[in-house]
C-alpha cells in the first residue's frame, strides 16, 4: 500500500492503467459479441480518453470519499493491510463502475446516434461491469500492481 501522496499517485497511475485497459477490452468484446483482433484494436484506440477520464474521476471525485467510507465503516487504521486493501478496493470499484459505465454508454450512443438508449445501456452496463471489475481488481489487478509497485518503488524510496 502507498505510504505518502507521491506513492499514492504513482500507484493510482499504475492501477488505473491496468483496470481501464482490461475493462475497455471487456466492454468492447461485450458490445461486439466476441474477442478478436478488432476488439483489442478498438479498445486500445479508445483507451487514452477513457484513461484520462478514469484518472480524473479517481483523483478528484472517487478516491477521497471511497477511502473515508472504507475507514469509517469497514476497517480501522490498525486492520491488516489485506483487509484495508479489500475495503478500499470495494469502495473504489463501486463508484468507478457507475461512472465508467456511463462513459461506456456515451461511447456507444455517440457511435450509434441513438441517444434514447443511453439510460438503458448505462443501467445494463453497471452490473455487467461490476461482476468483472470487482473480481479482477481483487484477484488480479490488486496483487499484480501492489507487487510490481513495491518492486519498482521499495518502501522509503519515494519521498513525500
Automatic annotation (TrEMBL):
Signal peptide: none annotated. The keyword Transmembrane helix applies. InterPro entries: DUF2798. Keywords: Membrane, Transmembrane, Transmembrane helix. The chain crosses the membrane at residues 9-30, 42-64, 85-106, 126-145. This is DUF2798 domain-containing protein. It comes from Enterococcus lemanii.
Amino acid at each position: 500500500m502507498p505510504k505518502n501522496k507521491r506513492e499514492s499517485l504513482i500507484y493510482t497511475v499504475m492501477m488505473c492503467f491496468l483496470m481501464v485497459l482490461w475493462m475497455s477490452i471487456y466492454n468492447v468484446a461485450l458490445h461486439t459479441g466476441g474477442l478478436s483482433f478488432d476488439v483489442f484494436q478498438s479498445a486500445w484506440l479508445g483507451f487514452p480518453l477513457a484513461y484520462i477520464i478514469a484518472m480524473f474521476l479517481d483523483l478528484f471525485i472517487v478516491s477521497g470519499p471511497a477511502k473515508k467510507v472504507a475507514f469509517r465503516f469497514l476497517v480501522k487504521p490498525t486492520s491488516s493491510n489485506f483487509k484495508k486493501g479489500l475495503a478500499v478496493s470495494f469502495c473504489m470499484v463501486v463508484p468507478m463502475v457507475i461512472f465508467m459505465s456511463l462513459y461506456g454508454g456515451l461511447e456507444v450512443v455517440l457511435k450509434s446516434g441513438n441517444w434514447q438508449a443511453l439510460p438503458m445501456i448505462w443501467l445494463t452496463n453497471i452490473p455487467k461491469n461490476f461482476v468483472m471489475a470487482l473480481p479482477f481488481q481483487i484477484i488480479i489487478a490488486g496483487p499484480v500492481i501492489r507487487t510490481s509497485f513495491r518492486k519498482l518503488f521499495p518502501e522509503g524510496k519515494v519521498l513525500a
